[in-house]
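Structure in, sequence out. Go:
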């Protein structure tokens, strides 16, 4: 972990704290667990050190990585204030626990880019969408900071609304894909940030 990450400031007293929604990740946990179970079962009856066995091991590594990513997403905490947004990982089993790893802070007045992408898990089915938001900017020390999280997070819309307000106020150039996704989510120029209401 870099020094600038470790020295990220504590959130303001009036910061809103958002946690990942565990229920939204239930299917991701189920997919990872089932896939690991199947791959381990198949690999256990195969002849070791064969091509097929190595393929199973590669799949196992991929699914374990997916499981770890789900655990990271589950533990991701966002702290939102008028000053900026802070992200960090805490124990997902302790909803009120402190941030333990990967703490990063981005100042709103040093926001440089908003990028939002939409991925569809099933063709032409919005219900199976997966939104990913990436914010770029700088911290108090002027070091570059990138904060990334997905639409399953409780803080997705509040943070996006605040970032969009700041981007408009600062006249940031936003790419067409992100603008289209903002429009699809109903973000209008007159819409107030929901977390302030």
């Amino acid at each position: 972990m870099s020094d600038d990450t470790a020295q990220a400031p504590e959130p303001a007293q009036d910061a809103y704290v958002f946690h990942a929604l565990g229920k939204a990740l239930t299917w991701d946990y189920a997919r990872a667990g089932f896939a690991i179970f199947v791959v381990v079962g198949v690999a256990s009856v195969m002849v070791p050190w064969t091509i097929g066995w190595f393929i199973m091991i590669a799949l196992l590594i991929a699914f374990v990585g997916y499981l770890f990513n789900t655990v990271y997403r589950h533990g991701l905490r966002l702290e939102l204030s008028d000053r900026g947004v802070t992200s960090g990982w805490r124990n997902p089993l302790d909803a009120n626990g402190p941030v333990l790893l990967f703490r990063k802070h981005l100042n709103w007045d040093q926001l440089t880019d908003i990028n939002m992408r939409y991925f569809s898990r099933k063709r032409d089915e919005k219900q199976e969408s997966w939104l990913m938001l990436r914010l770029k900017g700088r911290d108090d020390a002027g070091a570059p900071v990138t904060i990334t999280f997905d639409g399953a997070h409780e803080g997705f819309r509040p943070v996006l609304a605040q970032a969009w307000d700041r981007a408009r106020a600062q006249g940031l150039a936003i790419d067409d894909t992100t603008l289209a996704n903002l429009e699809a989510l109903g973000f209008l120029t007159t819409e107030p940030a929901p977390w302030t209401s």
